[in-house]
C-alpha cells in the first residue's frame, strides 16, 4: 500500500491516470449493458469459444443423433420433423450471441470479425485443397501397393523383380539361401506365336526368380511346337521365403522382340518338393523320363524339368582346377 506521503512525489495527472486504468480493468459499465475491459488475447479466446458454441448449436441435431442417451434421442426425433424451424431459430440465436459478444469486447467490431472470418474461411479452403491433394496422392500409393500383384499381372511384369530388397536385410537377419540347379529336358505341345504366320517358332526358355538375374537357354531355330532343350542353370533359393515364385517362360525369338508362348510358375516350396523327387532321391542322372517331372504349361504345352542341390564344395574345387588350368602355358 502506498502511504500518503509517498503519493506527493507523483504528479496529479499520473495519479489520476493510474486510478483510471485500475478502475477500467474487468467488467466496465460505461457502455450498456457492460464491456469486458481485458487483454486482447483473452478477448480473442472468448470470441473463438463463442464461435465454437454457435457451430455446436448449428450441428446439435447431428450431434444428438449420434448419442445413445434418452434425452438426445427424444430431442432428435422432435427436431428431425421440424428442421426448417430449428435452423431458423438457431440462426437468429447465433447471430444474437455473436453480436452481443462482439459488443461487449472493446477491441472487436462487427467489421473486423467479418474480415477475420472471411480470411479464416479462405485459409481453410486453401489448406483443404492441399489436404485433398495430399490424401489423393497417399490413396493412389495405397491402391498401387494394395493391388500391386494384380497390376503386375495386368502389365505382364509379375515375374520381374524391380527392387531387390527384403526386410530381413534391413535388420541384418541372415537368410537361408542355398543354390540349386534346374534342368530342362524338353518342351512339347506349344502353340504358334502370334507374330509367326509362315515360319516355325524359334524357341528358348527364360527363367525369372526373386533376386536371381534372368537366365535363358539358347535359341532353337525352327523348332516349331517342340524342342529338346537339354540345358540347366543354377539359382539361389531362400527357404525362409517359401512363397517366392520361379517363372519359366517358353518364348519365341522374333526380329525385334520376343513373344511369350507359354509359362510355368512354381513357388520355392514346390521347387523343394521337385528337388526331393528328382534330385535328392536319385543317385544317377540322365535325360530320360525317369529323372524328370512332366509339368503342364499355361495356356498349353508341357515341360520336363528336374531340380538338384548344388554341392558348393565341389564347385569350389572345380573352380580351383579351372584356375590352375588357365595358368598353364599353351
Order of helices and strands: HHEEHHHHHHHEEEEEEHEEH
CATH architecture of the largest domain: Sandwich
Trace the largest sheet across and list its strands.
6-3-10-9
Strand content: 15-25%
CATH topology of the largest domain: Immunoglobulin-like
Rounded mean pLDDT is: 82
Number of strands: 10
CATH homologous superfamily assignment of the largest domain: C2 domain
How far apart, in Å, are the first and last alpha carbons?
115 Å
The first-level CATH class name of the largest domain: Mainly Beta
Q: How much helix is in the residues?
A: 40-55%
How many separate helices? Answer: 11
Major sheet details: 4 strands, antiparallel
Domain count: 2
SSE class: alpha+beta
Taking all Cα atoms into account, the compactness measure Rg is 41 Å
Low-confidence stretches: 1-24
Morphology: elongated
Question: Can you describe this structure?
Answer:
- The protein has helices spanning 4-7, 12-23, 40-58, 60-66, 70-79, 83-104, 110-146, 148-155, 167-170, 268-280, 312-327; strands at residues 26-28, 35-37, 177-188, 203-209, 215-216, 227-238, 245-253, 258-267, 293-296, 302-309.
- The longest helix is centred in the middle third of the chain and has 37 residues, at 110-146.
- β1 and β2 form a beta hairpin.
- The strands form three sheets. The protein has a four-stranded antiparallel β-sheet. It has a four-stranded antiparallel β-sheet with strand order 5-4-7-8. Strands 1-2 form a two-stranded antiparallel ribbon.
- It has 330 residues and is of the alpha+beta class.
- The chain is 46% helix and 21% strand.
- Mean pLDDT is 82; it is low at 1-24.
- α4 (60-66) packs across α5 (70-79).
- It folds into two domains: 7-141, no CATH class; 167-322, Immunoglobulin-like.
- The chain has eleven helices and ten strands.
Amino acid at each position: 500500500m502506498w502511504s500518503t506521503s509517498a503519493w506527493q512525489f507523483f504528479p496529479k495527472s499520473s495519479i489520476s491516470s493510474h486510478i483510471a486504468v485500475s478502475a477500467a480493468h474487468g467488467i466496465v459499465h460505461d457502455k450498456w449493458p457492460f464491456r469486458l475491459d481485458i487483454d486482447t488475447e483473452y478477448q480473442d479466446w472468448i470470441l473463438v469459444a463463442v464461435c465454437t458454441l454457435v457451430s455446436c448449436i448449428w450441428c446439435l441435431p447431428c450431434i444428438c443423433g449420434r448419442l445413445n442417451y434418452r434425452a438426445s434421442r427424444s430431442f432428435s426425433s422432435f427436431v428431425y420433423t421440424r428442421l426448417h424451424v430449428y435452423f431458423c431459430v438457431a440462426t437468429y440465436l447465433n447471430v444474437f450471441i455473436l453480436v452481443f459478444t462482439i459488443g461487449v469486447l472493446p477491441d472487436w467490431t462487427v467489421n473486423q470479425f467479418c474480415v477475420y472470418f472471411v480470411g479464416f474461411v479462405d485459409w481453410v479452403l486453401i489448406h483443404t485443397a492441399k489436404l485433398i491433394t495430399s490424401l489423393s496422392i497417399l490413396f493412389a500409393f495405397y491402391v498401387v501397393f494394395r493391388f500391386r500383384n494384380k497390376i503386375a499381372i495386368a502389365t505382364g511384369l509379375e515375374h520381374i523383380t524391380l527392387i531387390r530388397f527384403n526386410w530381413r536385410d534391413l535388420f541384418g537377419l541372415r537368410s537361408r539361401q542355398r543354390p540349386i540347379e534346374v534342368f530342362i529336358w524338353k518342351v512339347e505341345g506349344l502353340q504358334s506365336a502370334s507374330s509367326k504366320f509362315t515360319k516355325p517358332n524359334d524357341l528358348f526358355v527364360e527363367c525369372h526368380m526373386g533376386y536371381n538375374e534372368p537366365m535363358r537357354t539358347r535359341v532353337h531355330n525352327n523348332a516349331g511346337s517342340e524342342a529338346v532343350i537339354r540345358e540347366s542353370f543354377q539359382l539361389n533359393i531362400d527357404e525362409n521365403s517359401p512363397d517366392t515364385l520361379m517363372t519359366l517362360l517358353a518364348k519365341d525369338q522374333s526380329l525385334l522382340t520376343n513373344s511369350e508362348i507359354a509359362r510355368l510358375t512354381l513357388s520355392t516350396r514346390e521347387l523343394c518338393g521337385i528337388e526331393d523327387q528328382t534330385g535328392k532321391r536319385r543317385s544317377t542322372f540322365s535325360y530320360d523320363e525317369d529323372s524328370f517331372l512332366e509339368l503342364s504349361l499355361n495356356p498349353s504345352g508341357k515341360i520336363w524339368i528336374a531340380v538338384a542341390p548344388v554341392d558348393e564344395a565341389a564347385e569350389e574345387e572345380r573352380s580351383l582346377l579351372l584356375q590352375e588350368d588357365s595358368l598353364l602355358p599353351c
